[in-house]
Amino acid sequence: MILAIARKLISNGFELKKSTNGISTKKRTQDINHPAITAHIKDLHRSGVKEKSVNGKYKISYALFLNWLNKTYVQFQSTSCDELPLSLVTEEHLLEFKQYLLRLENKGIYTKQTVSNCFYDIRFLLANLYKLGWLAKDITMDVTGIPYERYYYRELPTDAKLQCFFHNIQLYSDHPTLELAAFGLMLCLGLRIHEVANIRYQDINVENRTISVFGKNEKSAILPLPDPLQNYFQKLVVNKGQDVHQFGNNSQSTIRKLRAQYKLYSFVSGWKYPGGPHLLRHTFISRLSERTDCPSQLLMYLARHDRPENTARYVHRSPNQLTSAVNKINY
Predict the structure, then answer these.
(1) CA–CA separation, 259 vs 197, rounded Å?
(2) Residue 221 forms beta bridges with which residues?
């Protein structure tokens, strides 16, 4: 007990000393060299997460969690944060961390959105470490998140603006068929950018008009291939090996190129919508939700979501649509 108290006092003393050396708290929280978390971050990069998001959001959550474990439990105080054995973390620890975040919110230190996002980051970290083989058990299965309304309204491009965007691809692209197929997958099937980057020739069945998609958390789905995309892929699959990636063998390089090209074509098209290519996925889900022949179960399947509330965050209605809807009520 005496040793534990001494370590706690010494660690607090060093923390105060660091803060007086002109080193910002944000900078110190980003210095993470834990091997398991490093493997997780590499997996985030492979899935298309930007370095800016990793440094400005995820690493701060991870550092908060590691420091909390190190200072709260005797079993974690004998090692540094970068050597902390995450295999010893249990569901009880995760629940205690949730209560710790809620106390910080009640004290006004963090907002409800901040603690909700932080706890989501840690749950995803531990779940992904289990899938990567770093943990023997997924301790997040029965642990619910901290509720927070995550819906943000997005203005979506009209049909005319979408046509202008794809017309500019034909005008200015060095490889128009390739990029029409790539951005077409995002708009016509709602694929995420990292899913597009990882499409292989063997995933496309031109004869059956289907495409196999491997999405988040290693989930796979077979989706119908729309007619416009069918024509593009018929031209692209000629004389290509089955194991070759459709849009480039280096997925990270492909993601960077697609983001850069999206920025170029959206600028030329006069788009002023915030965000990047993920806007096309929002457009796909919103447009489908307007159709009477697409019930919510089908919409959720095509969006490849596990829960309807996730799909609901992608549904946006313009002010004109809302006005038209309320004016249809007669009494």
Answers:
(1) 11
(2) 213
Cα end-to-end span (Å), the chain: 74
| Both structure tokens of 82 | 């970068």
Crossing angle of helices 296-303/278-289, nearest 10°? 160
How far is CA 175 from its chain centroid?
28
Question: Sign of dihedral through CA atoms 38, 42, 44, 50?
Answer: positive
Q: Are 40 and 132 within 8 A, CB to CB?
A: yes
pLDDT tens digits, one per residue of 251-299: 889 999 999 999 999 999 999 998 899 999 999 999 999 999 999 899 9
The confidence score (pLDDT) of residue 159 equals 94
Closest CA to 213 of 86, 324, 302: 302
Distances from the Cα of 270 to the Cαs of 153, 161, 165, 166, 278, in angstroms? 20, 9, 9, 13, 17
- Between CA 233 and CA 210 the distance in angstroms is 11
Domains of the chain and CATH, by start = 25-131 (no CATH), 159-317 (1.10.443.10)
Q: Which pLDDT score, from 0 to 100, does residue 325 have?
A: 76
pTM greater than the 0.85 cutoff = no
The answer to whether 236 and 178 are in contact (CB under 8 A) is yes
pLDDT digits (tens, 9 = 90+) for 190-228: 999 999 999 988 899 888 999 999 877 667 889 999 888
- Residue 120 falls in which region: left (phi positive, over 0), alpha (psi -120 to 50) or beta: alpha
Query: How far is residue 150's CA from residue 309's CA, in Å, rounded to a whole number?
Result: 10
State the Cα–Cα distance between residues 49 and 51, nearest whole angstrom: 7
Q: Are 81 and 34 in contact (CB under 8 A)?
A: yes
Q: Is 109 exposed, middle or buried (0-12, 13-18, 19+ CB in 10 A)?
A: exposed
